[in-house]
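To: structure desk
From: M.T.
Subject: fold request, one chain
Message: Could you run this one when you get a chance? Sequence is below, nothing fancy, just the single chain.
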Amino acid sequence: MKIYTKKGDKGKTNLFGTDKRISKSSKRVKSYGEIDELNSFIGLAISGDAPEEFSHIIKELDKIQIDLFVIGAELATISDDKKIVKRINMKDVERLENIIDSCSEELEPLENFILPGGSSVAAIFHICRTICRRAERNIVDLSEEDEVNEEIITYLNRLSDLFFILARFSNKILGVEDVKWD
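Reply: Done. Structure tokens follow.
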């Protein structure tokens, strides 16, 4: 099987499960493209040799990568066509909140703004946070003209918070100071 189809050579793509062609520069395609970019950076974040204390986080990030595929499928499906099996919902958001709460208990309270950096894995989590925020903004923009599962926006909002906490948590585990802005 060849990886290329040549169907997108004119700047158009199909939405999931349909013959409907849309521009690759559409808000919808940009939105699920950014979800794909975020998923790739999560893969980078968990690809290194993680300390033992981080193994439970990697398991959660594996689940988040699956969630992002679900979000991508939702965004690649027009609202009239409900062929996707799973949708992001508030239980997924609550799972993120539980991780945030668990990791936050291990951290010192914030007294300063934190600059992206510290350890390399923390820096990657900060990149994930900013990509997630950009994806969220673009999906909000898409939702203003087309139907989007509102729980995707809530999920991404919470996910960006989680990446901030994971950046701080990574630095703590690795014994690296957060970069404080004074």
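Reply (cont.): The longest helix spans residues 150-174. Let me know if you need anything else for the meeting.
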